[in-house]
Specification:
The chain is mainly α and 190 residues long. The chain folds into three domains: 95 residues, no CATH class; 47 residues, no CATH class; 40 residues. 7% of the residues are buried. Keywords: Membrane, Transmembrane, Transmembrane helix.
Length: 190
């Protein structure tokens, strides 16, 4: 196993595989999940290609269909979020050592627990990183950063960039709309 881990790029693959195995229940990692992901990716490719081809060929019908499908997908996402939001909070975020809690700890390399005293129970595995799954987390390799502070810091760090990206996207779309109106107005007067 160590020779596999020590081979450069395969270390990243091994850690990602171990992370997936740690975050997802074994019954979730099935062939059906892979097939469902492939079908979903094919559908999104089809919708994206419809929008691209509609824009290139200037087909009003394809652009209308693309806009309709994107709007329906947005409404579906909102409905799913509304339907699952209460159970997500109850089962994932409030439950001790839920999948969301592990994902946040692993992503931000933080731990909201203070397990520095030897008389306390073993800290959750995600407080030490994916290498400690399922029960190799000790006070020696514990992340010392508080998760609440890490989340607040992350939001403050990327807040300006997120707002700037949204503003730039808005300006680009508004500019495209103005240019299109100008061109269509100049064609109608010629």
């Amino acid at each position: 196993m160590n020779s596999f881990i020590d081979r450069g790029q395969q270390l990243v693959y091994y850690n990602n595989l171990k992370l997936l195995q740690a975050l997802l229940a074994p019954e979730v990692l099935t062939v059906q999940l892979g097939v469902a992901a492939a079908v979903l990716a094919t559908f999104f490719f089809f919708v994206s290609f419809m929008g691209f081809y509609g824009a290139v060929s200037r087909s009003q019908f394809l652009l209308f269909m693309y806009a309709t499908l994107v709007l329906l997908l947005l409404l579906l996402e909102c409905a799913l979020l509304y339907y699952f939001s209460s159970s997500l909070v109850e089962k994932g975020l409030q439950k001790e050592d839920g999948q969301w809690t592990h994902a946040i700890r692993l992503t931000l390399s933080c731990c909201e627990h203070n397990y520095t005293s030897p008389e306390l129970v073993t800290p959750p595995w995600s407080c030490c990183g994916p290498g400690s799954y399922p029960s190799n987390c000790t006070a020696d390799n514990l992340h010392r950063k508080n998760c609440q502070e890490a989340i607040t810091s992350w939001l403050r760090r990327y807040q300006t960039g997120i707002y700037a990206l949204l503003a730039a996207t808005h300006l680009i779309l508004a500019s495209c709309s103005i240019i299109r109106r100008y061109r269509s107005a100049s064609r109608s007067h010629s």
